[in-house]
Amino acid sequence: MDRHRRTLLAIFAKRAGVPWSDVERMLKHYGAELSEGRGSRVRIALNGVRAVFHRPHPEKETDRGAVAAMRRLLVEAGLEPKDDDL
After folding, report:
1. Is residue 16 part of a domain?
2. pLDDT in tens, 33-48
3. What does the mean pLDDT of the chain come to?
4. Position 34 in a domain
5. Residues 21, 68: contact at Cβ < 8 Å?
6. Taking a C-beta distance cutoff of 8 angstroms, is the pair 8, 26 a contact?
7. At a CB cut-off of 8 Å and minimum separation 6, what does 70 contact?
8. What single-letter DSSP state applies at residue 83?
9. H or E stretch including 45?
10. Which pTM does this prediction carry?
11. Mean pLDDT of 79-83
12. What is the largest CA-CA distance in the chain?
């Protein structure tokens, strides 16, 4: 299993603490466009779905709220793991 798939599965397993850099790499791998916003904001566009996230700081890992929001974005964009992956 590749790194991007593991990150996707971690998000859908509702794990907090996923490194934000892994999330950004996974999004780019699956075709998302990321652009910088003000401060720690990052704009994400994936399959016609748009969202704005705050990069975690000073920590480098996502919290439960960010994982839940990322999961909603991925579901809306049609990017979900298959049932046999979970």
Report:
1. yes
2. 999 999 999 999 999 9
3. 92
4. yes
5. no
6. yes
7. 11, 23, 53, 62
8. G
9. strand 41-46
10. 0.91
11. 83
12. 39
